[in-house]
Specification:
2 helices, alpha+beta
Length: about 80
């Protein structure tokens, strides 16, 4: 269930470096996003990974941006 209406889950990770890179990528491309569970990564990373969600209207653009990133980094899940 989305916390923010109109946002779709796009990427799940426990890697804080992936989160930082994706945030900068989305910021640079004006993709609206929020990250669910980012603050809990240090406490319980394997129990509750961070879930990156993007504005539904920008979902395809965000997927395209993540394709190249995903091809270079094996972990994480693109939706």
């Amino acid at each position: 269930m989305d916390v923010q209406p109109g946002y779709k889950e796009i990427y799940i990770t426990v890697n804080p470096f992936h989160i930082a890179f994706i945030k900068s990528l989305f910021d640079a491309n004006n993709i609206r996003y929020f990250i669910e569970g980012e603050n809990f990564l240090q406490v319980r990373p394997l129990v509750a990974p961070a879930i990156i969600k993007v504005d539904s209207g920008q979902f395809e653009d965000a997927q395209e941006l993540l394709k190249e990133f995903k091809s270079e980094h094996g972990e994480g899940t693109i939706r």
